[in-house]
C-alpha cells in the first residue's frame, strides 16, 4: 500500500514524497518487528505443546484426610431408590456397596449390553444428585470410564464373598471411576483450590497410578 502511494505522487513535491517514503519505512519496520514477535510467540507455544506436562512431583503422597475436602460433592440421594434397592441401604447413611450400585444401575437401565446408556444414565444422575453442574461432570465421567473399568476388573483381586453379597463390582467400579473424574473436573464453585488440592489434581491428571505412592488417594 505504501509503495503504491509513493509512486502515485512521485511527480509531486519531493518533500511530500520523502515524507511518504519515511512513513512507509517506519511502517515496514514496525511490521517486521511485529512479525518477529508473532514468530517468537508461535515458537514458544509450539515448544510448550511439545514439552512434558507441568512439572509435578509424582512421588509426593496424597493425604486422604486433606484431599477428601478438596471438592464439595453434592449429597447422594440414595433415598430416591429406596423402594427398589432399600434392602441394600442400612439404617442411617446407606453403605456404599457393589450390591447397592448394581441395583441402582439395573433398575434405571444405566447399563445396556455391557455399556453405559447415555439417556438412562442422565436420568439416573438427575435423580441421584439434582445438581446440574455435578450431573454433567458425573455423566462425562461415566461415558469415559469403559477402559478404566475393564482395567479395574482385570486387576481385581479375587476374594471370597459372603452369601449376602453375591453382586458384581461392575457398577461400583463405574461409580469409583466417575468419582475420580469429577475430582479432577470439579466445578469451580465447589473446588477449594488449596495448594494440596491443586497438587493432588495435577498428580491425578499427569502421573501414572503406581507413582503416586500412597494408598490414600482418589
From TrEMBL:
Keywords: Secreted. Its main location: secreted. It comes from the Eukaryota. It is found in: Secreted. Signal peptide: none annotated. Residues 79-199 form the OBP47-like domain. One of its GO terms (molecular function) is odorant binding. InterPro entries: OBP47-like_dom (IPR054577), Odorant-binding_protein (IPR052295), PBP_GOBP_sf (IPR036728). Belongs to the PBP/GOBP family. This is IP02234p. It comes from Drosophila melanogaster.
